[in-house]
Amino acid sequence: LLQLSLHLRVPSRYGKHEERLCRPRGRLPARCAWFLQELPSFLVPALLLALRSPPRLEPLGCRLLCCLFCWHYFYRTFIYPFFTRGRPFPLQLLFFGMLFCIYNGFLQGYYLIYCAEYPNDWCTDIRFTSGLLLFLLGMGINIHSDLLLRQLRKPGEVTYKIPQGGLFTYVSGANYFGEIVEWFGFAIATWSLPAFAFAFFTLCCIGPRAYHHHRYYLKTFTDYPKSRKALIPFVF
């Protein structure tokens, strides 16, 4: 809630919201920064599983849930950073991002590996199946939107353009919308307090950023489609 309160007023100062007079000191290339920031969310659950003797990921539902979390962060760590064309990333924000990923990776991994107890038929439960569908839908939207954003720039370009296609037809923050849907789907499939806490924080963290992106586009581009919403499509 504190994150939501702070960033609804002032966006995080990186990317298109970076202050123009800010000196380019204390920064890492975007590819390196994203790799380092997202790595703990993949590495920490993997280490927790390796340290558990014997491994405890029973029943099948528990294994699938842990795989969903690691699958997302495998993409965010080992695939997404090497295609991004973003601007250099501030070290201060990188530090706090890594702290969050370490803590959240531990929270989700520890719960699923050491604490979670699911019935043997959890994979057929409506909570698991509906949550899984939401997770896959959100991840698909997120990955597709990232692809559309990358295609806006040629190698070496740093200018911002109007996103087109996909869910960007309806919302300015299609990539953020996809990630929020993804983690609420994970929370429903997991049906746990740690997962719902993560989904809620995701909403409070990137929801305001989508809002500020929307305001930036409206202010910067006179031909920006007025019918687009900030984050939630089909809301008037």
UniProtKB/TrEMBL annotation:
Xref: PROSITE patterns: S5A_REDUCTASE (PS50244)
Domain of life: Eukaryota
Keyword Nucleus included in the entry's annotation: no
Catalytic activity: 5alpha-pregnane-3,20-dione + NADP(+) = progesterone + NADPH + H(+); a 3-oxo-5alpha-steroid + NADP(+) = a 3-oxo-Delta(4)-steroid + NADPH + H(+); 17beta-hydroxy-5alpha-androstan-3-one + NADP(+) = testosterone + NADPH + H(+)
Domain 3-oxo-5-alpha-steroid 4-dehydrogenase C-terminal, residue spans: 88-236
One annotated GO molecular function: 3-oxo-5-alpha-steroid 4-dehydrogenase (NADP+) activity
EC number: 1.3.1.22
Membrane-crossing segments per the record: 89-114, 126-145, 183-206
Range of residues in the leader sequence: none
Annotated Gene Ontology cellular component terms: endoplasmic reticulum membrane
Enzyme class: oxidoreductase
GO BP terms, alphabetized: androgen biosynthetic process; cell differentiation; sex differentiation
Keywords: Differentiation, Endoplasmic reticulum, Lipid metabolism, Membrane, Microsome, NADP, Oxidoreductase, Sexual differentiation, Transmembrane, Transmembrane helix
Membrane topology (UniProt): Multi-pass membrane protein
Location(s) in or outside the cell: Endoplasmic reticulum membrane; Microsome membrane
Main localization category: endoplasmic reticulum
Protein's job: Converts testosterone (T) into 5-alpha-dihydrotestosterone (DHT) and progesterone or corticosterone into their corresponding 5-alpha-3-oxosteroids. It plays a central role in sexual differentiation and androgen physiology.
Family as reported in the entry's similarity comment: Belongs to the steroid 5-alpha reductase family.
PANTHER family according to UniProt: 3-OXO-5-ALPHA-STEROID 4-DEHYDROGENASE (PTHR10556), 3-OXO-5-ALPHA-STEROID 4-DEHYDROGENASE 2 (PTHR10556:SF37)
Protein name: 3-oxo-5-alpha-steroid 4-dehydrogenase 2
Organism annotation: Setophaga kirtlandii (Kirtland's warbler)
Gene name tied to this protein: Srd5a2
